[in-house]
Specification:
Strands 2-1-5-4-3 form a five-stranded antiparallel β-sheet. A five-stranded mixed β-sheet has the order 7-9-10-12-11. The protein has helices at residues 2-7, 12-67, 71-78, 151-182, 184-203, 217-292, 299-328, 340-354, 374-391, 449-459; strands at 87-94, 99-104, 120-124, 127-136, 139-149, 335-339, 360-364, 369-373, 398-407, 410-417, 464-468, 474-478. It is α+β, with helices and mostly antiparallel strands.
Length: 480
């Protein structure tokens, strides 16, 4: 696993060469090990057979000396092994198990056991030991024991290992040369394909195509890659076309929106100036009638006059609120950190100064911050706090709270009161322009404040909602 991680980022050309060299090395090592092992086994077998044959010959030649109890003749027979330098020593055991005759090569110190042991050929440590019965008329009259050095086998093993190493080195050099010439057949198409993919990735040029050089799996891969590029190119062309059409549509919609905004501005100007002029005239003449001609009017006429003046004043408030609502939908947002707690404290103080006779408990959480347009967020808080102030006016002990809580992992700001509340069946009408759940006689207002707050919150990418119950207060939440 670690080897694969180490070499996985090498170029394909180098990976192929390493694979070829590694495979060749493993094959040559296995072959060399097998041949060396075979050579050693063969040499041991050959050496054992030769020693056994030599021992059998000595056994035949020693029968007479052993039968006539002639140790000297037996020793002369054994001395014939002097021509075999690998023989460390040989001895003849008599029938009763004592050493009858022996031969030791000069400089050697063979260890002859007290008894020859079982007949046969065996390897003990670095020596070859042969025990052979000496028979006369099918009767054992003694045993010949031969001890032979087998260091020539280890010499042969070292020679074989050296030859194998030399062959491995020469083979690897040859494999490297051949792989350098032949790996291009596989690596070149892969490298070309990689170069094409890099060109497409860096330059986004989907018209590039890889060159197909064979009909094998690499050829199939190149065909698939080129087909994929063709499909991507077609889709890219279609996307560019759609983007061009979309840009044209955006320009058209932008022009239409600008025209609509200009019409809205013209309408706002008309409302602000053209509609206010006759409204001021109605208010002015109504005021004159109330001052100069009130004594000439009966009670019913004076009531009608008061209603006219109240209607003109309400119309003025509606025009102001409508202009405010139109301005909220225009202009660019100026996002910045806003201290909502400080803003709520200021608004609460203004409300308290407006009606000092009221006893209202304000609970404002400290350190509440938001990211948004400070001017617009102030309008939201003014509307929500003013709403709470208005709808708690009939309570002996009014309480208004501002704070924040986590909803779905995001901060939500809230204004909570213990006022009149509302029926949740009609909650959908709360944020509609000029929609009211209470009469103006019960609670004054135009019904535009919550609609304005909703538009501001939506412009900030947030949402606003309310929870409450009749005579149990209401809580308004908003996010930005």
């Amino acid at each position: 696993m670690k080897v694969g991680l180490r070499y996985r980022d090498l170029p394909t050309k180098r990976k192929l060469m390493l694979v070829i060299l590694f495979t060749s090395s493993v094959a040559l090592l296995v072959a060399g090990a097998v041949f060396t092992a075979y050579d050693v086994v063969t040499a041991r077998t050959r050496l054992a057979d030769a020693a056994l044959s030599q021992t059998q010959i000595l056994a035949l030649n020693s029968r007479a000396a052993l039968a006539f109890d002639d140790p000297k003749a037996a020793a002369e027979t054994l001395s014939a092994l002097a021509i075999r330098p690998s023989v460390q020593g040989v001895c003849i055991y008599s029938k009763d198990g004592r050493i009858f005759a022996r031969y030791e090569r000069a400089g050697a110190a063979p260890q002859f056991p007290q008894s020859p042991g079982r007949d046969g050929v065996r390897f003990e440590n670095s020596d070859l030991v042969v025990s052979q019965a000496i028979l006369l008329d099918q009767q054992r009259i003694g045993t010949i024991y031969l001890q032979q050095d087998v260091s020539e086998i280890y010499d042969r093993l070292r020679l074989s290992a050296g030859v194998a190493a030399l062959v491995l080195l020469v083979s690897l050099v040859a494999a490297f040369g051949v792989s350098s010439l032949l790996q291009g057949v596989i690596s070149k198409p892969i490298l070309e394909l990689a170069a094409t993919a890099r060109t497409v990735s860096e330059k986004k040029d989907y018209s590039a195509r890889a060159v197909k050089r064979s009909q094998d799996e690499l050829g199939v891969l190149v065909d698939g890659f080129n087909e994929m590029l063709a499909q991507v190119q077609a889709r890219d062309t279609e996307i560019r076309k759609l983007n061009a059409e979309l840009e044209l549509r955006v320009k058209e919609r932008t022009a239409q929106l600008e025209a609509a905004n200009k019409e809205l501005e013209a309408f706002a100007y008309s409302v602000s100036h053209d509609l206010r002029a006759p409204l001021r005239a109605v208010e002015g003449f109504s005021h004159i009638i109330a001052e100069k001609y009130a004594p000439k009017l009966d009670e019913t006429g004076q009531d009608y006059l008061r209603r006219v003046r109240a209607a003109t004043q309400r119309m003025g408030l509606l025009i102001d609120d409508m202009l405010l609502l139109s301005r909220v939908t225009r202009g660019e947002l100026q996002r910045e950190p806003v201290d909502l707690s400080s803003m709520a404290q200021t608004i609460a103080a203004e409300l308290a100064r407006r009606e000092p006779e009221r006893q209202v408990e304000f609970v404002i959480a400290p350190g509440v911050m938001a990211e948004g347009d400070a001017r617009l967020l102030r309008i939201v808080l003014e509307n929500l706090l003013d709403n709470a102030w208005k709808f708690t006016s009939k309570r002996d002990k009014s309480r208004i709270e501002f704070g924040t809580k986590s909803i779905d992992g995001k901060p939500a700001y809230f204004v909570c009161d213990n006022g009149a509340g509302f029926d949740t069946l009609y909650a959908g009408r709360l944020f509609g322009a000029f929609q009211r759940l209470h009469s103006t006689a019960e609670f004054p207002g135009t019904g535009i404040g919550l609609a304005t707050a909703q538009r501001i919150v939506h412009r900030h990418g947030g949402r606003i909602w309310a929870e409450g119950a009749v005579n149990k207060g209401a809580t308004f939440y908003f996010t930005v």
